[in-house]
Amino acid sequence: MEKSESTPLLEVRGLKKYFPIRSGFMKKVTNHVKAVDDLSFTVATGETLGIVGESGCGKSTTGRAILRLLEPTGGEVIFQGENLAALSPNEMRMKRKDLQIIFQDPFASLNPRMTVGEIIEEPMIIFELYETSKERKEKVAELMQVVGLKPENSERFPHEFSGGQRQRIGIARALALNPKLIVADEPVSALDVSIQSQVLNLMRDLQKQYGLTYIFISHNLSVVKHFCDRIGVMYLGRMVELAPKNALYEEPLHPYTRSLLSAVPIAKPKTKRERIILTGDVPSPANPPSGCTFHTRCPDCMEICKTDKPEFQSMGDGRYVACHLYNQ
Ligand SMILES: Nc1ncnc2c1ncn2[C@@H]1O[C@H](COP(=O)(O)OP(=O)(O)OP(=O)(O)O)[C@@H](O)[C@H]1O
């Protein structure tokens, strides 16, 4: 397990989320999709932890299980010393003030029948944050300004805004409760490339201004490179490598990380990167391979990889890797 010098804001220990697969006439549970399988990591106050991996590796499920938008199958999510996974639904509801999420598709996540002002104000009403409607409206105007929207547009509806502006509305709504941690699930993937950096810059400014901590979920290694302090790489529901950003990009350890990075173009390459093309498809998370789940596609596969699950071990300097190549 990773150790940070100060107490982390969030510590995820052995997190699991299995989805039942039902089949037959009686719809009996015959197997499980192991979407997240034994995940452990920490997030320090004020940092941005990136979580990357191919589609279906369990990134979104991880984000949702941390916030208990999906009930974890196992493990602990320690937020400021308290295990969120053990809270009653009502206790968890109150905690949500501190933990917010920004979704990939701002259009789908905003109620089309509510005005932008109502959308941003709603969480304040639910959590009884201000005494009067006037105070809430003032806060709505302030938040709209903070995210770069004109407060006079608060009576408009989401469809009247562009994709980038809609994501700003989603961010303002998430900020309405003064959260400490924001899970940003592919927050710019649906936006034009030209708009992406504007929204990322806004998120970075807000992080400084409000002391926010982010878990930033993305399939795009170029985006996380510029935005994150540390990066965790997931494969088939597990974290295979976790490292400070520069270490990960300059010297990736896990063969899977190396293969992902080998496909990312480098602007001014100091060293020539080997091109690793993985063979085969990603196996089903319902029937993951034995041993190291990556062994079926690994260019460095050894006999032990087929039978023994590698430990997620510390390599020093804040680096962790789950790979038999690094057995000590
Ligand atoms: N509600 C669900 N019921 C059953 N299986 C699910 C459910 N949600 C996700 N899964 C499965 O869990 C696995 C992980 O999905 P998840 O959406 O977390 O991956 P992801 O890395 O976020 O992918 P993407 O980038 O495509 O969103 C996938 O195999 C997916 O099909």
Automatic annotation (TrEMBL):
Tell me the ranges covered by the ABC transporter domain, including all copies.
21-261
- List the Pfam families: ABC_tran (PF00005), oligo_HPY (PF08352)
Keyword Cell inner membrane in annotation: no
Q: Give the record's keywords alphabetically.
A: ATP-binding, Nucleotide-binding, Transport
Q: rRNA processing among the record's keywords?
A: no
Q: Which domain of life is it from?
A: Bacteria
Q: Its Gene Ontology biological processes? A: peptide transport; transmembrane transport
- A GO MF label: ATP hydrolysis activity
Q: Which CDD domains does the UniProt entry name for this protein? A: ABC_NikE_OppD_transporters
Which Gene3D superfamilies does the protein's record reference?
P-loop containing nucleotide triphosphate hydrolases
Q: Which InterPro entries match?
A: AAA+_ATPase, ABC_transp_ATP-bind, ABC_transporter-like_ATP-bd, ABC_transporter-like_CS, Oligopep_ABC_C, P-loop_NTPase
PROSITE patterns named in the record? ABC_TRANSPORTER_1 (PS00211), ABC_TRANSPORTER_2 (PS50893)
What's this protein's family per the entry?
Belongs to the ABC transporter superfamily.
NCBIfam families (UniProt xref): oligo_HPY (TIGR01727), PRK11308.1 (NF008453)
Name of the protein in its database record: ABC transporter ATP binding protein
- Organism, as annotated: Brevibacillus brevis (strain 47 / JCM 6285 / NBRC 100599)
